Amino acid sequence: MKAGAGLLSAVVLFLLVGAVWSQRPLRPKKPTKRPPSSRRPSVPRPSVPRPSVSEPSEPTDLPPVILGFPDIYEDCPKVCTCSRNYPSALFCENHNLREVPVIPGRTHYLYLQNNFITELTPEPFVNATEVRWINLANNRLHRIDKQVFERLPSLLYLYAQRNQLKEVPAGLPTCLEQLRLAKNRITSIPAGAFNKMGNLTLLDLYHNQLSDSDLPKNTFRDLSSLMQLNLAHNVLKKMPPGVPNGVIQLFLDKNRIDSIPKQVDNTINTYILDYFAGFSHLAFLRLNYNQLSDKNVPKPSSTSRLSWTFSWPTTTLICAHVQQSPGAPAPQPQHHRE
Fold first, then answer.
1. Taking 60 as the threshold, does the pLDDT of residue 50 lie above it?
2. pLDDT at 48 over 80
3. According to the model, what pLDDT value does residue 42 have?
4. Are strands 133-135 and 157-159 parallel, antiparallel or unpaired?
5. pLDDT of residue 5
6. In sequence order, which ranges of the chain are alpha helices (DSSP H)?
7. Where are any strands of DSSP class E within 156-297?
8. Can you say whether residue 246 is alpha, beta or left, with left for phi > 0 and alpha for psi between -120 and 50 degrees?
9. For 3, phi and psi rounded to 5 degrees?
10. Residue 196, phi-psi category: left (phi > 0), alpha (psi -120 to 50), beta (remainder)
């Protein structure tokens, strides 16, 4: 009995002690200090001025070259397209080319327009001696090696408009029939550039920078077959001398021509009245947007078939047309304008 009472007392005492202990205030924990960082403090770097780089005049990052489609012709350049239906044609236009690829010997018609070609060298034409037609329009040509034409004895048509040429290419093939050099930067024609070119029928020098001093009287002397001459949009102040008498279409608009001479040397040491008296085939003439007026234009002689028409005020000659002889069919001029 006594043992049970003692056990009960011990249990009660334990509970009382536990209750008192639980009511003691807790000691606040001391904040733990972080160890000092081992990193060095950042020191601001002095700014170094960068050298100024001027912007290029033209974009230097050209688009990538476009490859052509696989073809059955093993000699077809990868950057061009060959057609089974046109085995003599090589299509390299609109391919972002920087240079001319090696041209297969079977090529007669070469399309190179709308690229980024800067010069024409003879190497790609080693085997291409039968090329008759080349289109180089809208590139960045600034030089054409005259040796190129030595390897192109059959070339008949050369189109190189909208480029950066500063002079008419030298060494042109004598068999050439059409030469288009419109919208370049041509300021000179080398002496003898058109010598022995009796087959040339079309010469387009529209929108260049040719002046009177660039057209001596013998410039067009050998162009006996010339039918169309385009000298519009240059800086001429005088009528060009030595124009072949067989010309059918003559474009001289958008120059600075202020008069038409009453007498002109026709390159054979004799003088003829009226600049146009010897042009028996002239059917289309443009002289608009010059500095002509009815005071500085001589009246056509009785041998001339031209009649003038002026705008108002009479400071610009807008057109001149040929009076055809009775019963003669009116010629249909072909407009080759840019």
1. no
2. no
3. 57
4. parallel
5. 60
6. 2-22, 147-150
7. 157-159, 178-180, 202-204, 228-230, 249-251, 263-265, 271-273, 284-286
8. alpha
9. -65, -40
10. left
